[in-house]
Design a protein that fits this description.
heterodimer, A: about 220 residues, mainly alpha, 2 domains, B: about 260 residues, alpha/beta, Rossmann fold, six-stranded parallel beta sheet, 6 strands, about 10% strand
């Protein structure tokens, strides 16, 4: 029975919060005590931020649990979990030192600037290879639609590659037309239907009919 | 005393919002009253049991992710997409629990963790197997985009999941994860309302939920007639928007931009 109450409470809170935020958007300044940092809407946003920050702590606990389990079970991946734990403790100590003393130690910034940022940029760069292999499959002319996609794609490619303009001055013109005129109506149609879908989803959440995100879907 | 409601574009937006909600509500009531609602089926949703069945036959796990989602549920564009993805996660987890298939959910969104854990726990509970749910193995959390992507790519390479389901607010990780799934031959179902990632998911996945289909999927899964009624209302709203577009276009042709001015926020 308590499970039922708990479940219903989730949907009631979702609906009430959605209603308050909507009222804030449309009538914020005209309803006393609704807007601003001291208003109900502002307070709810602050709560959301606090919950978000607490959830990061929850995530850190989840990470420690997962990696502790890997280490205790001595799995093949245990070595990586040990590396994670060491770095986690190391950065946590440096972060706490900064928090209490206000002094940012060199290793703290060094790890971010020379390890984290570099690895992140490298990972982003490999996207190019993944896009390339995905494009290779997408551009196979298996039917008329795919053939049209291939032709359009070739023009856009040659418009962006320096060699395109060298081969023929018309490539950038046609390629840019595809980019700026040809695809925009389609994308805008997607945006409009996406917004309408969001509207319907929001309405279902508002009146407590959207129960899938608490495993009501069956 | 200030004016409570100002007749501006925001007020027009409010009127349109109320009209839309009234339309959804009317169709939901009509559906409750016994009106037959025919909603098109989404191949991507119909493929989910097939994806889980494939995993059961192969004895391999299922990869599930709702994407970067700007790292929070508290984001106007991505929060609802993450929620929609979690809705379908509940359904997928139930199918997995029923078939004895392991599912691992990857996310960098910290504030979605309690909701995800409860959703998955409820799904196992609904199948009468609460003891089989272990959050430390079923949920894989990373706090940033790069660690999330690295963890996903590594896991896909090591575990070689039979199926990969990517539904939510994705960014550049979509093409990397979906391509990694393609390399190992996983059956892939994707979906997002982020226009910049749609082409990647369409190119790499076997089935795709495009834009509003992501939000509509959970309604279709529920099979609840009154919830399906809102989809019918949404379809009608599309025609109204098309009509507004047409009227605006014709008015603009004769030099009258008043409708554009009224609808611009």
């Amino acid at each position: 029975m308590s499970q039922v109450y708990k479940r219903e409470l989730v949907f009631i809170v979702t609906g009430v919060v959605a209603l308050v935020m909507m009222l804030d958007y449309f009538f914020g300044k005209n309803i006393p005590g609704l807007s601003g940092s001291g208003g109900i809407a502002g307070q709810l946003q602050t709560w959301a931020l606090i919950i978000q920050l607490m959830a990061i702590g929850l995530g850190a606990i989840n990470l420690i649990q997962v990696h502790y389990r890997q280490i205790s079970r001595k799995t093949d991946m245990a070595i990586y979990s040990i590396i994670f734990m060491v770095f986690f403790a190391f950065l946590l100590l440096l972060g706490l030192y900064k928090l209490f003393t206000g002094v940012e130690l060199y290793p703290y910034t060094w790890v971010f600037a020379n390890v984290y940022t570099s690895l992140g940029t490298t990972l982003y760069a490999i996207t190019g290879f993944f896009v390339f292999s995905a494009a290779y499959r997408a551009f196979r002319a298996r039917n008329v639609d795919a053939a049209i996609l291939l032709i359009g794609g070739c023009f856009v490619l040659l418009a962006n590659a320096p060699i395109g303009e060298v081969l023929w001055s018309g490539f950038p013109l046609i390629g840019n037309w595809f980019n700026n005129v040809g695809q925009i109506p389609g994308m805008r149609a997607f945006t409009v239907v996406g917004a309408l879908g969001l509207l319907a989803y929001g309405f279902r959440a508002l009146i407590g009919k959207e129960k899938g995100f608490y495993s009501e879907a069956s | 005393m200030g004016v409570w409601i100002v007749l501006d574009t925001k007020f027009v937006a409010l009127l349109l919002l109320i009209a839309s909600f009234a339309l959804f509500y009317a169709y939901m009531k009509l559906a409750q009253g016994g009106m037959k609602i025919k909603v098109r089926t989404f191949p991507a949703v119909a493929a989910i049991p097939e994806a889980i069945g494939r995993a059961a036959e192969m004895g391999k796990p299922v990869y599930y992710s709702t994407g970067l989602g700007q790292l929070t549920l508290n984001n106007q564009l991505n929060g609802p997409q993450t929620l929609a993805g979690i809705s379908i996660l509940g359904y997928t987890t139930r199918l997995c629990a029923k078939s004895g298939v392991k599912i691992t959910y990857f996310t960098p969104i910290a504030d979605s963790l309690p909701l995800v854990e409860e959703t998955m726990r409820n799904a196992y509970l609904a199948e009468g197997k609460p003891e089989e749910f272990d959050p430390t193995t079923a949920i894989n959390f990373q706090n940033e985009q790069s660690p999330y992507l690295t963890a996903s790519l590594g896991w896909i390479q090591r575990e070689k999941p039979a199926s990969s389901i990517l539904l939510g607010g994705f960014y550049y990780e979509s093409v990397c994860i979906a391509e990694a799934g393609n390399i190992i031959g996983a059956m892939q179902i994707g979906g997002t309302a982020n226009t910049h990632q749609l082409p990647f998911l369409v190119a790499t996945c076997d089935y795709t939920l495009i834009m509003e289909e992501l939000y509509a999927a959970s309604a279709e899964i529920s099979g609840n007639p009154d919830v399906l009624g809102s989809l019918k209302g949404e379809d009608l709203l599309k025609f109204l928007v098309l009509a507004l577009l047409g009227i605006g276009f014709l008015l603009a042709l004769i030099g009258n931009t008043s409708l554009i001015g009224l609808l611009r926020l």
